[in-house]
């Protein structure tokens, strides 16, 4: 049965009226990594509509099995993407336990290459992966000989960057650096672009493409082997500026809907999470769609060719627009009732509120006031354009960010989940609030 809301139908009509015949790009594309799950059709349609509204060029479809439920979701995505003009391409999951050689998905890929929505860059279909570092170049060459002239740009997370990275891998057409967060041993630092710069230089010197990842945080709390935190306190707001300065060939948001690792920026639907109660426990109520308030203006700035965040301004016609985020359990909180314990790397978390406020041209003398409970954590003077902030002193209670001009409030947002110093679950997912709310 199809469930399609009146709102979505209206959005579909507007988008369909301007859809292209084929999704091609040779400019400055932005993608989002999309986890294939058993998802209802109305939810799939909403994802396509929301991605178009954000300005994305394509979803990178992460698939690791060809079970009927997965293929059904893929087919529905292509049907609606064909209709509405969103690009799609596959990111085959080659992490341990899944695909081990590209020959395993060659015939599956070939069935979708003729679809109007299959994304092409410079007239060539794009193919990516998650993992696959151990695949020899001969396998990639054989894969391309089988499927035709495609661009293979895998996503590696265990590779070592080097200036001659592509020398033993001439059949690759580029690379996605999956590591968009600091590692635990690095401590409380901002995400670095050192590896990105090395990969970018290596790619361009070999006439290859570099695909840069952008992500808020990585928090996983599924079992004893999947319990870690890669900090996001100084990450997304920094990564946006880094991407504009570095100017890679392509960008990929990590991710649209990976609930398991908490770095979703789009919708997470209940049906794919229902079979994973551990994931549901730390994502239920933690809506991250508020990120769109800064991501949509960022995508527009990227496509304009901006090299700084200075030109990012509200798109809502109001004086301000923004997003803030924070974890809702203090770093030193007692969550000893959770047998899994605190995640590895949580020592790098901070009791802070981070965020971005975009200020319209001509707006002056604005101040953002950050509160936790009844405590004023701090004030941030705002300028026109992009204002990233991180304010310490998080205490129990609900968090708010209000923007004031003297005695007049011009916008603000309010977190619905209270910060706590004790919890039954060691939950370090972010509460994300877009504003004005």
TrEMBL record:
Residues 1-18 form the signal peptide. It comes from the Eukaryota. Keywords: Hydrolase, Signal. Coiled coil: none annotated. CDD domains: GH71. The keyword Hydrolase applies. GO terms for molecular function: glucan endo-1,3-alpha-glucosidase activity. PROSITE patterns: PROKAR_LIPOPROTEIN (PS51257). The keyword Signal applies. This is Glycoside hydrolase family 71 protein.
